[in-house]
Structures are given as C-alpha cells and as structure tokens.
Amino acid sequence: MAFRVYLSGEIHTDWRKQIIDGCKAANLDIQFSSAVTNHAASDAAGDCLSEESNGFWRDHKSAKVNAIRTKTLIEKSDVAIIRFGEQYKQWNAAFDAGYCAALGKPYITLHDEALIHPLKEVDGSAQAWATKPEQVVEVLTYLLSDQLN
Amino acid sequence: MAFRVYLSGEIHTDWRKQIIDGCKAANLDIQFSSAVTNHAASDAAGDCLSEESNGFWRDHKSAKVNAIRTKTLIEKSDVAIIRFGEQYKQWNAAFDAGYCAALGKPYITLHDEALIHPLKEVDGSAQAWATKPEQVVEVLTYLLSDQLN
Amino acid sequence: MAFRVYLSGEIHTDWRKQIIDGCKAANLDIQFSSAVTNHAASDAAGDCLSEESNGFWRDHKSAKVNAIRTKTLIEKSDVAIIRFGEQYKQWNAAFDAGYCAALGKPYITLHDEALIHPLKEVDGSAQAWATKPEQVVEVLTYLLSDQLN
Amino acid sequence: MAFRVYLSGEIHTDWRKQIIDGCKAANLDIQFSSAVTNHAASDAAGDCLSEESNGFWRDHKSAKVNAIRTKTLIEKSDVAIIRFGEQYKQWNAAFDAGYCAALGKPYITLHDEALIHPLKEVDGSAQAWATKPEQVVEVLTYLLSDQLN
Amino acid sequence: MAFRVYLSGEIHTDWRKQIIDGCKAANLDIQFSSAVTNHAASDAAGDCLSEESNGFWRDHKSAKVNAIRTKTLIEKSDVAIIRFGEQYKQWNAAFDAGYCAALGKPYITLHDEALIHPLKEVDGSAQAWATKPEQVVEVLTYLLSDQLN
Amino acid sequence: MAFRVYLSGEIHTDWRKQIIDGCKAANLDIQFSSAVTNHAASDAAGDCLSEESNGFWRDHKSAKVNAIRTKTLIEKSDVAIIRFGEQYKQWNAAFDAGYCAALGKPYITLHDEALIHPLKEVDGSAQAWATKPEQVVEVLTYLLSDQLN
Amino acid sequence: MAFRVYLSGEIHTDWRKQIIDGCKAANLDIQFSSAVTNHAASDAAGDCLSEESNGFWRDHKSAKVNAIRTKTLIEKSDVAIIRFGEQYKQWNAAFDAGYCAALGKPYITLHDEALIHPLKEVDGSAQAWATKPEQVVEVLTYLLSDQLN
Amino acid sequence: MAFRVYLSGEIHTDWRKQIIDGCKAANLDIQFSSAVTNHAASDAAGDCLSEESNGFWRDHKSAKVNAIRTKTLIEKSDVAIIRFGEQYKQWNAAFDAGYCAALGKPYITLHDEALIHPLKEVDGSAQAWATKPEQVVEVLTYLLSDQLN
Q1: Tens-digit pLDDT profile for residues C41-82
Q2: Residues 38-57 of G with CB under 8 A from H
Q3: Residues 67-86 of H with CB under 8 A from F
Q4: Strands, DSSP E only, in B43-149?
C-alpha cells in the first residue's frame, strides 16, 4: 500500500510540486493529498449552496465545506508536511498541526529559521523540522527505504 | 462539579481577567485554566534542564515542557476560549484550536472583525465567535443557567 | 458519586418534573441535567454575539451555543431519557438518541404507543422504552437498588 | 480509493438517483451506500427470524437487523448526505445525523427552507446545508477536484 | 479516591460477602459494585415497562435494563472479579469477561480447578486466576499496599 | 469490498458450512473467518513454544496464541455470528459476544429456544437472534441486497 | 484536583523520595503513585494464588498482578517520571515509556548523560529529559505555577 | 489481505531473515515490516535536516524521524514479534512492547531463558514467548491455517 502524505499550508510557492517531483524522481510509492489549493475556488467552496451578503458566513460556509475534505485526508494520511511561508497569517496550517497532534498523527514542519520562535509550540509537537523541500524528500526517501519482504 | 474553561491565546491584553471577573460577578461556578501566561517564564520553561546554545532547541525544550500543562488542561476542560489579538503570529492559539477540534472539544473564538478571513478555518470548527470578553461572559452565563436538581 | 441522568426532548409538558420529583420521593442519589428548556432563551442563545438578519444563521448560532452544553452533559451522563411528545418535529431528540448510540451511552425512550413505528430506529438502539414518567422512575429506582458496600 | 458517500433519509422521492446520476455525469469516483430503501422489505427485515404478534417487537427486530447495515456503512463512509422531506417524522434521519456527529463524521443536510427552524440542532452540527440535489453534486465535485499525484 | 472493584458472576454463594468482609477487615479503601444480585428482581427488571406474553422479549427487556447498570459500573471500575461456580451456564459472567477484555479493563477470575479447560479463553485474557475469595482479598491487599504520599 | 463475517462458537456441528454454502448459493460477496476450528490443534496451539507439565499453563499458552487470531479477526469483521449448541460450557462464545458488545461490533446469536433464559444478557446486546443457519443466510442476503452504484 | 504524577523505574536509589520531598517543600498539590517498590514483595505478587515450580510462570503471574496496579495508575496520572539508573536491564521502565507514548500520556525521563544513546527512542517520545531529581521538582513547580481562579 | 507482522528489536543477528525465510517456505501470506535495520543509517536519520554539535539533539532528531516509520508500521500490523538479544540495552524493543500493550496490539517476545526475569513485565503483556525463530514460524503457520472461504 502506498505511503500517504498530506501537504498542508502555504499555497503561494511551489513547495508541493518540489516535494512531489522529488519523490517521483526517487521513485517512492507515495500518494500525496492536500486541501484544494486554488485560492479563489477554496474561498468560494460554499457559494453554490446559497448567496451570502455577510462576509463571516460566506467564509464560514466555505471553511466547513473545505473541512470535509481536509479532515478526511488528514485522518487517512500517514504523515503530514506542514509548510509556513513568509506571508499571511497561515492559521489554517497551525490549526492542521494541532489537529494532527491531537490525533497522534506525525507531522513535519517546513519553514525558515526566522520563524522558529513563533512556531515553537507547533514544532514542539512535530516529528521533524525542515527548511527546504529537498530535505523533506530526503526524509521520505529514508522512511521508505529498507523495506522487508 | 464546576464547569471548566480553558483560556488560550493572547497574553498581552487583560481579556482573561475580564472574563474571569465577569464570571465571578455573575456568580458562575467555573474553574478557569490556561497556559503559563508569564512570557519570560514560559520561554524559559526548559532552561532548568540544561543550557542550550542553539535557539531552536531552547525553544523546543520549553515548548515541550509547556505542552505537559496545556495538553492536560485542554483535555480536562469543558470548553476552550481561544483569543486572537492584533499582534504576533499567534500560531499556538490556532494550534490549540486544531487540537480541540480533533478531540471534539468545543471552543469559542474571540477576535475582531478584521481577522475573519484569515481565521475562517479556525472559526469554521468553533462553536461560536465573539468579539468582546463580555459576550463570552454572557454565553457562559447562559450555558450555566437553568440547571436542574 | 451520584448517578447522572440527562433528560432530552419535549419541553412543553412537565415530564422532567415528574421524573425528578418521583426520584426525590424515592430518595435516589441522582444528578439530573438537560438542555436549557426555556424555549425563547434557547432560540436566542447566540443573539448576544451579533445581530443576524438571516434566520438560518440566527438558528445556526444558537444551535451551536446550545451544543456546547448538551454535548458536554450527554457525555458526562450515565443514562439519557429521551422524550417524544405528540407535537412538533422533535428532530433534536432523535439527534440526541443517535449521538448517544454512537457513544455507546445507554438511553431510555419515553413516548406513546402511537409513535412506535416512526421511532423504530430510535427505539432499536435504546435500552428500554417507557410510556410514562413513573415507569422511568421505577426503572431508575431499580437500577440504584441493592448497592454493595 | 473511491470517496464513500452515505445517503440517509427520505425514500419517497428520487433525490438519491439525482445525486448518483449527477456524480456519474461529472465522472466522480464515488461509492454510494444507503440503508435498504425498499420500505416494505425494510419493515420486514426481521420477519424471517420468527413471527411476532406484537407490533413493537416486530419493528424492534427489523430496526436492529437494519442497524447492522446502516451502522457499518455510516462508519465506513467519508461523508453522509442526510435528506429531510416534507412528509413523515423522519426521526431515523435525525438519528443518523446525531450518530455522525458523535463519530466526528462530516455530513451535509438536504432540505427545504421551511424546515430550517426544527432542524437547527441537526444543521448546527452539519458541515453544509443544501436545498437541492444538484448543489450536493456541485459540492462533491468540488471536494474531489484538484487532486494531487 | 477509592479503588473500584466490580464483582461479576455467581449469585448463589456468598463469595461477594467474603471478599467485601475480608477487604473491610484489611481496612482497604475499596468501593465494590455489582449487578443487582437478587435473582427474581433481576429477571423482572423490565416488567414495569409493559406486560410480555413472550418469554424471549420478557428476558430481553430485563437484560437491557440490567445492562444500563452493569455496563456503567464495569466501565467505572478499576478491576473486575469474575466468579464461575459449579452450576448453571453463567454465560453472563463470560460475557462480562469479554467486555472487560475489549475495554482493556483488568479482571481476575475466581473458579475451581475443575473449570480450567472450559474457561481457558476467559482465563487467557485475565490478569490472574484465584480459586478462593481469600486469595482475591490477598491480591487486593497487595495492590493497595505501599502507597506513596 | 467484501462484507466480513466472523463465525464464533460451537465446533461440533456443521453450522458454519451451512451458512457459508447458503451464502455462496445466494452469490453473496462475503469473506468468512473464524477461530481455528480443529479442536485438537486449537488445544495444542502453544505446544511448540515449550513443554508444559501443568494443565493450566498449557491451556493458558494455547488460549493466548489463539487470541492473536480471534481478536484480530473479530476487530476486522463487519458482523459476528455467535453459535451456542447444546453441549459444553461454551464460555468462549459468550466471551466473544461480550468482546463484540464492548467494541460496538454487531453480532447475531444462533441458538435454540431452550437457551433463551441463560443467554438473556448475550441476546440483550445482540442485533438479532436466529435459531437456524438458513435464517442467518436470509438476514445476510437481505443486508447485502439493494446496493447502490 | 491534585496533579497526579506516576514515578516509574529504578527502585535502588531514593530518587522517588527526593522528588516527593522536594515537591512537599515547594508546597505543590501533587498526588504521587508508583508500582509497588518493595522488590521482594513485587516478585512474589502472585505467589498467594498457587505455588509454581516453573520460574517463567512464577514471574508471569506476578507481572500480571502488578500490571493491574501499574496500568491503572499510569492511565490516571497526568504525567509520568521515568527513571533509568546504572544497573540492571530496566526493561519495565522502557515498557512504561512506550505505554505512555501510545496513550498520549506525557512523560519526563530521568537519567545520566551516559545513557543518552541507548535511550534515544525513549527520550524521543518524552516531553523532557532531566538528569537530577531537583530538575524534575523544578519543572513540576513551574507546571503548577500561575494558576488562574 | 495479507497478515501483517512487525519485527522489532535486535539488529545484530539474522532472526528477521530466519522468520521471513521460514514463512516463505511455509507459503504464508504475510507482509513483514520493521524499523530501518541499518544501524548507521538509523542513527543518521535526522542528519539531513541540519548539523548538530550536541549528541543528545542529534539522537533526538533521528529518533523522532524513525518514529514516523515505526509508529505507523506498528499501528498497521496485526502482530509484532519483539526480539531481545544478549547485548546492548535494547530499550527501544521494550518501548515497542509497551506501545503495543497500550494499543491492545498482540505481540510475541523472542528471547533466551536467561532473560526471563528482567523481561517479566514485557512477557506479562505478551501473547506468547518463543526462544527460537522457528517457533515463531510455527505459531504464524498455525495462526494462518484453517482459513474459511
């Protein structure tokens, strides 16, 4: 059975593609999953259900539709990679980390040194901290090495 | 048995005190808990264990010591109030929200309108969103009203 | 420790009072709990958080505030009594029954013979079906009898 | 692996077929499941076990046989769609919603505006509310879009 | 907090009394619990709910009422003592043992050598096997010895 | 995915074969499992590990080896059929029933009318009671009927 | 409610006493627990049940009796302190650490620098590593500081 | 579906190979898994993430990376074989045993008679104790025999 890796966080750089391409190049049997990463589509996830004049409820509806997907995929994953970039609040990434922690689901954080202090609680429950996508590929390559049978 | 309320998030304003004072004034039987809110003490939580030259590991040690307290108190609470202020990254607050969500522990967020969009996933799993401490007091007063026996 | 009984469902007749009075008369050490049974207050549970022009969201907010209380009390109870009356949809009572069933929390239904067929799934997961409050009192009296020590 | 969708509730209109047909047309990899929707067969589910003169016990036996199927399928599903129509008590649908809520299993309700108030507790724990089957198809299409790998 | 011991099985000899008296004599802080041990009352536990002409359903109703008590007490206990005597089928005692095993709740069996072979699965998941009540008292005395603080 | 049925209990009549043959004739997609039903092999399950002069420990070792298989298969099954025959103590069957009950795993009992009273606790937590293997086949045929997709 | 600390491991030095005395001196509201630390009594825990000629089974019986106590106390504790000394195999201490890890129960290890490498998996799942009892006292003092209410 | 066996412990003898070869010769449908057994690679598991001057943190990082793999594989296995050899502390093997015990995951220990006493707690929660790999093969052969269908 393929190893299942959930990719959470930043959608403005190509870190997902770097990890996926790196793992393909390493020929790893991994099934990647993620939230819907199209920002506009994600914000509009609930729009088909009814029109909303109030911004809070529009966001609320979309967030709850998106949670159907993210919750299911996180629970089915074997490990999550949680990326924090330089911009935006990215509270959803920290939320996913807390969700993983409570489930006992291992996760690896991916962020620059500059974010060490504000991420200390998130890193404190992580199994590893990487600064570059290629390190994540290297860890995954290691984790899937030396299989029996 | 007292209702147990965990207060998570911002430590730079007196929102905790406002809620606690408001609940005392309303004579509610509530036991409040929280992470250690002394910032310097919290950052130094692991310092007694050994000296650390590397900032990451100093933070790591303290974060893990603090997690002994926060994890236990969140799990024992009946509801968490999670506060997001204007400053700082506050990823630990979003982490606590995700932790609650995965446990099925109800939580109420407390933040300004300006933060609605970046907090949509955090609010999407919350039971309520308040903008002022007195609203939290009002909700808690309601929740503890009309007791049988 | 007192036995904890959650009383769910109909708020338009005095069945709660009959059970509580009957158990007091029988001198049983029971702690009763319930949702807030003041209908207007319950519908307005979320009103303090913000004004809502849209009826769905007003109901939504109040329902989620109420769930903080009901979820907690159901989970802490030893048994739930779930009452279906003649009027209204009472879907919240059936919802509570399903909630109990999934948790493995025992519950007793309380309803007339006329409702047997539409309640067959709800009764199918119940530990007992009573038609009158005094039968519930009799069952509880039996359950708390013959204590050791 | 196919996404698994459980369809609960009303058996007197063709909403199941509309959703299934819509998802097939959209080429979604979904495995649908449901209770036995043949009303007479469902009511007679326990008749082969013994004859019953008492209506309560006939219903009871059938309900418990049916629960073997519904409980298993709900637990294996990724999301449930729970439909409330205009007729009948439909307490089994609300029961399924409560069952999902306690398991942390996401569900989407499908009902008209007229039912908003009596369904507020059921909707309060739902991830989304739709009024038409095509909206459900649209949400499912979105949820299965933008897959990695 | 008192140690909680559930006493399951045979109701035709005074083994419960021997254990309770022995523990009192040893001054142990134990809270004992049990199913209702009055045989006639236990068989009639559901009779107040309605009259039943069919023996299966009379037993069924009573068994389900009794389960409200036994399930709750087993789950709250720290250890169960499960007694098998010489007479009767005593399937309820074996059922309680399986229930404990699945919950990870430790239990001690109490039976003669003659029953070793037919009880091998029940003993296989037990933490200990005793043949006499005084051995159970001795084990409990040991378990509560040497307390810190 | 095939429906998984665990067959527990009596090994001296051919009830397993009757159910399996009946389900094959009905073309049902079911995967059956069971404890090792060769009595001598089952009693000797632990003999390869070391010789044992003491009967209790020989039984103990074998019971614990067998439990590796039965525990795993029960947990993976969708429903268990638990058979009680006329002979022997059959405490292992009642143990399996209790194990299922605590896991929330549905089970169907299969036994004659003569055993109703001593099996009342076991039947009380069952989803159905059958007296003949062909009834079990009929129930399984019903449960697997009317599949969507 | 007092904070509950389980003290696991080495019984040949007075580290338990040092921690308990230190916490008393600091006036902390902690309830300590432990396995029975009288070595001879612990080895003989099952002797009252029957005589055993075979060393494996004597140890086995005592280990299982002791597990009734240790399992219960670990599960009820808020944090475990797990001590590794210089002598003996101390596999029971590592076993307790793994038990805590799987339960998500936080634990602190207490051992010298010399043991870092062989304990890396045990430390890897710990919340903290201390080398001296007074550090554990300091951490506990911190964890119980700054209480609200 | 193949039976899944996790092989934990000693990496300095060829016991894994003996068991795998024996099971292949017996034509058993088993999927074996294990930690990475290359000692140097395992110690260096976290080295790609950053350089570490401090031995504790180097070990810590590697241990946490390795735990992503071991935790996942243990949780997915049906049974674990846990081997203790003559050399080294082998606390990771005892840790895995405790982890299995807390999860209710069955495990078999594999060690010489000389280790009986120090391993009594580890053996006390095991389903079986073997002294030679061929005994493990024999037990697995038995467990996979006599399959239905």
Answers
A1: 999 999 999 989 899 999 999 999 999 999 999 999 999 999
A2: 55-56
A3: 78-79
A4: 79-83, 107-110, 128-130
